[in-house]
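for the recovery benchmark. tokens below, seq after
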């Protein structure tokens, strides 16, 4: 009988998922090294510091490799009996104590095998399991029996539930048997369903091993898959979770140049700057003149500006010219305008005319347009580059149209905007879209 043994992190994952009210199938790796014909679980004694427990006196502590007690020992039991599954399920879904319910549910999934998965599913239906529980269940079933779990998921009539079950099951399978999971997805015809499942596969591969997931995504990038950058963000998130943002920064920096590397750097930067803005800035500066580095520079500049816009802007000004510096300056001035529009405008007034100033003014306009559209129009008119000026003017005019329709209608014919831009303004809905500014 095929077997899946689940290590102690399973309890932490289950408790964390339900305690926080959320679950990510990329954060529940399963240990699939087990002994055929047996199952293993950690008892509720884990809360008292005991790594492994006994159940009704059954079983014995045995070393995984030698069968003798000692280091690495774990409790081994016979497979669940049907009535035992029912009893644990009853506790998992009916016990008044939420902690007991969570621990019982974790035990239920630890005991899942290809043979009893259907029975556990029926118990979950009877217990009215919720979404997070179903995702955990499908992940565990996929790790234990990928083909069986995916076949069962494919038979679900409700489209949304079917798609969710397929994704979770495939992630679980990839976390346990990457080669077979990759082969299964590779055999699918190209299309929307395959595209949806690709991210689930990458998430499971990242659970299994960061290197495996990275290499898989890089192959997709080499093959011209436009979604490879998105998938690399998934890998980056798991690398951060597993080893921290500093290790992730090194990993991302060593990726080959390209959009996938840019996406990974951007994801790492988001966490890095939240923990250590100056450290993140020093790390990100090396990518300032790289095409793939634009996203990381903009990310650090924008996030740092939320706390210290003057410091962020000073750092951006020190960088080599490039798209990242330009986009970062736009975002940073938008954040500065949100925090202190007077200080931001004084800084802009002191800037010498340049393309960089045009970009900075554009970011400022994007932020203030909905609060003070007439001032935003004045600032937008000061932009030297025609395309940037038209973009900023159109945005400010849209805000003006929403705030004071009659005044805007009188001003618009003489605004200098093209007919196309004026039509865009007149079609503006009163939904204040884009008022947050920032990243356009």
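predicted aa per position
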């Amino acid at each position: 009988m095929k077997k899946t043994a689940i290590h102690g992190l399973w309890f932490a994952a289950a408790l964390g998922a339900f305690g926080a009210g959320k679950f990510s199938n990329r954060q529940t790796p399963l240990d699939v090294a087990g002994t055929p014909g047996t199952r293993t679980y950690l008892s509720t004694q884990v809360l008292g510091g005991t790594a492994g427990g006994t159940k009704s006196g059954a079983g014995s502590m045995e070393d995984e490799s030698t069968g003798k007690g000692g280091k690495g020992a774990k409790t081994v039991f016979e497979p669940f009996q049907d009535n035992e599954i029912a009893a644990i399920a009853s506790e998992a879904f009916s016990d008044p104590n939420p902690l007991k319910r969570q621990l019982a549910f974790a035990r239920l999934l630890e005991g899942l095998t290809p043979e009893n998965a259907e029975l556990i599913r029926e118990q979950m239906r009877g217990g009215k399991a919720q979404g997070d529980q179903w995702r955990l269940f499908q992940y565990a079933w996929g790790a234990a029996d990928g083909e069986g779990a995916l076949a069962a998921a494919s038979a679900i009539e409700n489209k949304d539930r079917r798609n969710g079950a397929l994704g979770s099951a495939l992630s679980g399978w990839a976390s346990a048997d990457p080669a077979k999971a990759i082969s299964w997805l590779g055999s699918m015809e190209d299309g929307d369903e395959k595209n949806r499942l690709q991210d689930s596969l990458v998430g499971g591969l990242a659970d299994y091993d960061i290197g495996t997931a990275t290499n898989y995504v890089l192959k997709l990038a080499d093959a011209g898959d436009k979604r490879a950058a998105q998938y690399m963000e998934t890998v980056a998130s798991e690398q951060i979770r597993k080893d921290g943002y500093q290790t992730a920064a090194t990993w991302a920096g060593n990726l080959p140049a390209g959009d996938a590397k840019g996406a990974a750097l951007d994801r790492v930067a988001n966490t890095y700057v939240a923990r250590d803005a100056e450290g993140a800035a020093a790390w990100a500066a090396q990518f300032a003149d790289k095409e793939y580095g634009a996203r990381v520079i903009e990310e650090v500049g924008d996030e740092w500006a939320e706390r210290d816009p003057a410091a962020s802007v000073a750092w951006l000004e020190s960088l080599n010219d490039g798209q990242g510096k330009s986009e970062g300056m736009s975002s940073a001035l938008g954040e500065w305008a949100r925090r202190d529009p007077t200080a931001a405008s004084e800084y802009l007034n002191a800037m010498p005319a340049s393309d960089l100033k045009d970009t900075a003014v554009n970011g400022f306009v994007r932020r203030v347009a909905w609060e003070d559209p007439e001032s935003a129009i004045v600032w937008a008119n000061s932009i030297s580059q025609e395309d940037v000026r038209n973009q900023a003017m159109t945005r400010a005019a849209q805000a003006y149209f929403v705030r004071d329709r009659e005044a805007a209608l009188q001003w618009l014919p003489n605004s200098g905007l093209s007919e196309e831009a004026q039509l865009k303004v007149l079609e503006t809905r009163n939904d204040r879209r884009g008022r947050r500014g920032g990243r356009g």
